[in-house]
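Protein 1 of 2
SEQ + STRUCT:
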Amino acid sequence: MDETMTLDMTAAEASQVQALAERCLTAIRESNERARQTESVMITLQAETRALLDQLRMRLDVEATR
């Protein structure tokens, strides 16, 4: 499926489109980084939650039913 798209624009318009594309890519990269950081925090919190639940089970002498 070979399709070609041609855009006729002035140098100024091309510069604006390029700047907009760069801003979009920057926003995507920043969003991806925030997602990676959020995932890392979630993994840490899940581990801490599991540890707290284990401690609670031990103190209440409850059998784990995982």
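Protein 2 of 2
SEQ + STRUCT:
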Amino acid sequence: MNIKITKSTYKTKENKRAIIYDCSAKNYRKKINTGVFVEDGYLDKSGITLSIALNITLEKLKNKKEDALAKYLENNWSFTELEDYLRKGIDIYSIEEYVKNDFVKNKNIITGNDYFNVIKVFKKHLNKVNISFNDLLEDNTILEFKLKAQRNGVKVSSVNSYIKKIGVIMNQAYRDGFITRRFVIPKYVLEHREKRLHKVLFDKDKFIEAINKSDNIFQIQSLSIFLMLIICGGMKPSDLVNYEVHNNHDKNDLLGSMIYGNNSRFLKFKKSNKGVIFKYIKLDYIKIKIIELVKTLFYITHHKKYPHIISSYSSQYKIFDFDIEKENNLYRNLWNFYQVKIKEVYHLKFSDAKGIYFDKLNTIEMNKITSDILFARVKEVELISYEKTNILKEDIEKCEKKISRILSVNELFQVIINKLIFLGVDLNNISLSNVKTPMEFSSFLLEINKYRTGL
């Protein structure tokens, strides 16, 4: 028995040829379709192709052929048994395998899982167990996915997002050599809708009303977090976990040391998840008190079950100490829970904090360089030649103080403290800033333990 892997002499309507097993023996000849099709000219006579994905598939076909021959001889198979075994085919190298084995190598866990989920969505709506590269290179596959996904109730914005992400995967596969031609998203598939800019308005009275409506510590905690997100530069929840604490003596942070005065401490976090520009916020008295409040409340609500997620008492201005990528489920569950809690008493979301902060900044008159810094539009290199740094420091501090006054942060902080007392949690005589030793930290935990009843 001899088995060759070769191309069919027949072309399909799409100008493709099937790769076949050509089986021959004395008085016997049979050609079996492997289920793998290639464009005419895609594979030369020696079986060499520039596509890594096709090479992997051909290697699987080769292994299948050798396994079939071994079983044919060992088990004394009939021709029919051999043909049946070969017809079962192979698992063609799929996009799922590529994403799992190659695409995610330079991606973080969250991003990798996000793209892996895109493949699952395509498999679901295309009703396929596996999706090969060739499936998506077919002209109508993306349109078919769009129509079926929308028919199944997927929003237009989500469909657009899935298609764009599959494009990222496919074009990375092209650069990696898994396919030999670029993937092009048909222009008529993506729907472009005008973005409606929704201005988020912050009303002090409504925020106080939300505080007064709160009937448990978790609702107050969610409002305290929201206040911190706003006043600390319009943070996102992920910034609350990832922000860094610096002082102006840090030699590795030129920009921070240039915009804040001596002995200043400041927070530093990325303006956007994908960007490289950082936002800086000086720690003044009221910001420190709000950070201390939020951290103390997390010691009350989470130290017993999740002590590892809270930053050490010695890291005075840092609340959390865990890796979002490694503990992504914990992170998602945490913020989903608090988003529910704030929704019970308030009409805004945590993600609105950034819009509120920048909206208030827009009401303040300032020069261009100050504006660029506060709106996080400036890089270190742009400030190196700037000479009036003392005036700049004064301007930035004035603007940050104005933001606090406009938002009535001191008043809102006190309303929260008073409401906590009403709920049985008096923090007036408890201060993390006074905790300097392990013994003092133990005393602090004993003091707040009385507030854990019922949690």
